Amino acid sequence: MGSDGGRAVRLGIRSNTGGTDRPNQVSDPTLDNPTISAWLNTAAFVAQPINTVGNTGSNTLHGPSFKRVDLSVFKNVGVSGAVRVQLRVEVFNLFNTPSFANPNAALGTAGFGSITSTGNNIPRQMPFAAKLLFWSKVSRMRTFLLAGVALAALAAVVDAQPPPGRGGGRGQVTSPRNAYPDRPAGDPAAIERGRALYGVNCAFCHGADTRGGDSGPSLLRSSVVLDDRNGELMAPIVKSGRPDRGMPKFAFSDDQIADVAAFIHTFRAAGYDESRQKPPSILVGDAKAGEALFAAKCASCHSATGDLRGIATKIADEKLLQQTWLMPGSGGGRGAGAPVVPPAPTAVVTTASGERVEGRVTHLDDFTIALVTADGGYRSFRIDGASPKIAIKDPLDAHRNLLRTYTDRDIHDVTAYLVTLK
Ligand code: HEC
Ligand code: HEC
After folding, report:
1. 87: β partners
2. If you average pLDDT over residues 2-7, what whole number do you get?
3. Residue with CA at minimum distance from ligand 2 atom 40
4. Pocket perturbation via mutation, ligand 2, pick of 297, 302, 317 by most ligand atoms within 8 A of CB
């Protein structure tokens, strides 16, 4: 909806110097019932004496006001899992309210005080459209994975000894291993009830398979959902919603929420859900396609006959192998360390006095950065606002950036290929 009270009219009269001056006002310029042909009392103004400034104030008169109501209605219709059609009707200027330009404000010209043109309000328009949407369940989940894994990786290199177990570390890091929690199978009856509730109330936004849709994020990678057991963490969100962010509230009982949770928990972050009766192996990709992808995306830094030769022997567990190539240094868990220790980030610190120190980062927080330099020296610096200047270079940046680009299929294919590198 748009409206305004009318734009200011600047009265003018041609001056003797070639530009425009303000005229003199001699009586009330407003009319009780202004019309298009007479918007203001033209008799209220006279030309000011030559070489003087007129007494008419600026912005004392206003042109016609402007009002417009626009309306749009969108409806998403699912076509298949990943494709939906968005039907859109948009109406601009629903009530077809005309708008008019300001009146002719040049004293002494024909038509002074009358309106001769329409304003910039568009006449009513009603475009209909259909938009084909392919939603990518990967983009959001990758971002989540990215943040979690990146933090975990940084925490691991920065803390010489990563905190044991989950959640204990700096900033409640979500480590990749609790991104794939093991859960006991839920009660089948509860899952069925939850499936029905979810299908009607939630699938529209979060996707039939909880992997997210146009209007809701993936629940699969949601930390709330991952940490939730029986709906206890989802309950406050479902009951109160987050209306400001597009999540409506639902008048569900705790039992209903537990049922919905049981259903949502049948979906596994690793990609194979009981609900979809997929095989438990993660080796479902096409090794040939994976090889091609490797050549395109990885071969600039790695080689199957060089540094990654025998990687599948070194990391025999395919899930661990997958986590490792996705984000080197992740994986491990249950007491075991990650199978590979990636190189630490390096930094160049430039102090206010111009000293430049480069080294491997051993500690970094809001207040201090510590480096070990190439000659084995240890230097630490207090961080005070923008000083010193710190440029961090993380060898895993490429992996981090690539994370966002993979589809689920890419991931399966690359893993299927790497598994052949015995
Ligand atoms: C109209 C769309 C819509 C519907 C319907 C909907 N949600 Fe949501 N939901 C959202 C959006 C958008 C968010 C993200 C809100 C935010 O950014 O904080 C969200 C967030 C959530 C979250 C929190 C995720 C997180 O990590 O913060 C949970 C849990 C959730 N929804 C569960 C459900 C359940 C269960 C249902 C059905 C009972 C449901 N939603 C129905 C749009 C929807
Ligand atoms: C811009 C360079 C770059 C690209 C591109 C890249 N990586 Fe890496 N990768 C690294 C670095 C740096 C490391 C950590 C050092 C190391 O172990 O070699 C690493 C580590 C790994 C490791 C762990 C190896 C080990 O034994 O330590 C695997 C597996 C891996 N990358 C696979 C891949 C795959 C698969 C791709 C493509 C999808 C890829 N990388 C793309 C730079 C890259």
Report:
1. 75, 130
2. 63
3. 298
4. 302
Is it the case that residue 334 has pLDDT exceeding 90? no
- pLDDT tens by residue, 108-122: 777 788 877 666 555
Taking the CA of 290 as reference, the closest ligand is 2
Whose C-alpha lies nearest to ligand 2, atom 5? 298
Give the right CATH number for 346-393 from 2.160.20, 1.10.3470, 2.30.30, 2.60.40: 2.30.30
- Indicate the top mutation candidate among 135, 172, 206 to test ligand 1's pocket, ranked by most ligand atoms within 8 A of CB: 206
Ligand nearest to the CA of 410: 2
Q: What is the fold of 137-276?
A: Cytochrome Bc1 Complex; Chain D, domain 2 (1.10.760)
Choose which residue among 157, 330, 399 to substitute to test ligand 2 binding: the one with the highest number of ligand atoms within 8 A of its C-beta. 399
Ligand nearest to the CA of 395: 2
295 C-alpha vs ligand 2 centroid, how far in Å?
Answer: 13
pTM assigned to the model = 0.41
Give pLDDT tens digits for 18-31. 556 778 888 888 88
Relative to the CA of 298, which ligand 2 atom is closest? 37
Q: Per-residue pLDDT tens for 207-231? A: 888 888 777 888 987 888 888 889 9
More confident residue, 213 or 152: 213
The domain limits of the chain are 2-134, 137-276, 346-393
